Structure formats: structure tokens, C-alpha cells
Amino acid sequence: MGAVGLFFMGAACSSFPSENDALGEFSGAFEADPNSGLAFSVILTGRAEAPEAFLYAGGSYLRQRPLAHVAVLVRHRTETFLFDTGLGRNIDRQFDAMPFWVGPFFAYETTNAAADAIGGAREPLDRIFVSHLHWDHASGLPDFPDTPVWLRREEYENAIDPASGPPAFLREQYEAIPNEWNFVEFDDGPYELFDQCSDLFGDGSVVFVPLNGHTPGSMGMFLNLPSGRRFFFTGDLSWALEGLLLPAQKYFVSRSIVDGDAGQTRTSLARVHRLLQERPSLHAIPAHDALAQAYLAHYPDFEH
């Protein structure tokens, strides 16, 4: 997630690409199979709290906002998978690798690791997808050592680069485990406002898209339920829904630490902002916005 606890004065957002800039053209969504059996559930693995101003530029310094560390359990008629893992069983030990100054800024409270919440017998997993490999999204990977992991090649190569490390990446989470690594390929053509996508099952129910900027290989996930409701899990592109709706970048100190490419992040924010204007019924879900997630089904309940 990033240093949301740093207390400095905010700064105005840099300008965003306008609708006349190169955001692309709408291609529409694939028709989703009404018999996909798609359902999902949010697994809360940890909590935190921060002033709203630290989540998005223009937020209040006086209003405290709840934050969430989550995994998303997705069921399809053909398989079950996780999107991100949240905080894992060994997060406290993993966190020891952080620089000494990080502790107060990345404070968290654990709830229940995804592996403990779902249990292998109750919810056997076929694979895990990760939006990106930052510490609070990859912490649970060692809890599933035999489960194949899927991510973008750019994300994997960036994470294993010797220059990548704390406070964004904790290499123990993804280097010392025998997971089978696989790469998501965006070879299914344009989707909505994105010029490339991966239609996971070929039935329009689960679609991954690139969300470059926060990390080189960040990606988001569309879930198109048989009921007709649509959800877009946007990872850490923004830490608050307001960042997508306004749009607004993260607090300037935080984004200088955690957003790898400021220009690409602004472009991705502008693209999602325009998408939400065009698709008002689409539910955008930032990975850490507890308020945006509050109305969603939490495990063991499911959205259908």
C-alpha cells in the first residue's frame, strides 16, 4: 500500500490527461456468460486507519478513514482462485525486514489470514492472481506453496530486480517459496477503454486489464456476475474511491514513495475515471478502501 501515515502538508494534483488525450476509444465489454456460475467474496486479512488526506489529494486531514487489507475469493463453474492474498500468516516476521522508520507509517492490525479463513478443504484453490507484488498484497503467498501464481511478466521481473526491496517489496514473500509462476498475457483484444485484456475463461466473466503506474506490472480485474452486476477491482491505483471519481492522485509524499511512474499512474487514473463516468453502474473497488468494500459480501458470504 504505502506510507499513508507520513504527516506532511499535501500538495495539489498534477494535471490529468483530458478526454481529448490518448486514452483510447470505448470498445465495450464482452458479453458475459449467464451460466458462468461466477461469485466472489471479500476476505478481510487486516485493518489500518489513516487521515483521509493521506489517501487522496484534497482529502480531509481531520477525518480518519478505515483501511482494509483483503484477498478476493472468486468462484467460477470451472475453478476457484484468489485475487491478491492480503496479509498472510507470517506477516509479523516478514515485516521485520522493513527499515526501522517504517513501523509507525505502515501500522496494521491482522484479522485472519486468507489461508486460515478459507481452509484448504473448504475452498481448494486452483490458482492465485496478484494485482502486484507489494508487501501487503503478496504476504499470503507462502501460505499456499503448492498453488500456481499468475501475474504480469513485467511485475515479476520488476519484483526480482535487485533494486526492488523494502518498503514496497518484501522478497521473502515471493522468492523463498516453491510456487509455480505463470504470466498473464493480454492477447484478447480491447476491452472497454483498455486496448488490451485477458478474458480468463473466454466467457466474459473475468477480465484482467493493465493498470500501469503504481508498479510496472499492476493489473485490475473485472468481475461480470450472472446477475448483470459488474465490479472492477483496481488494486492500488488509488487507495480511495474518491481518487477514481474525482480523479485525484495519492497524497504527494505517499505517491512519491510507492507510485513507480507518476505519469503512467495519472493516465491510468484518468482512464478509469472516464470509464466510471461512462459506466455509472460499474462498481469500482480499490484494494484498501474499507468504505467501498463495506457493502460487499465478506467470507463466507458471496456476491452472485
Account of the 3D structure:
- The protein has about 300 residues and is of the alpha/beta class.
- It has one domain (about 40-295): Ribonuclease Z/Hydroxyacylglutathione hydrolase-like (Metallo-beta-lactamase, Chain A).
- It has helices at about 90-95, 115-120, 135-140, 155-160, 170-175, 240-245, 250-260, 260-280, 290-295, and strands spanning about 40-50, 65-75, 80-85, 110, 125-130, 150, 180-185, 200, 205-210, 220-225, 230-235, 285.
- A 7-stranded mixed β-sheet has the order 4-1-2-3-5-6-7. Strands 8-9-10-11-12 form a 5-stranded mixed β-sheet, with no helix packed on it.
- A hairpin with a 5-residue loop joins β10 and β11.
- The two termini are about 30 Å apart.
- Residues about 1-15 have low confidence and may be disordered.
In a nutshell, what does this entry contain?
The chain contains 9 helices and 12 strands. A 7-stranded mixed sheet has the order 4-1-2-3-5-6-7. It has a 5-stranded mixed sheet with strand order 8-9-10-11-12, with no helix packed on it.
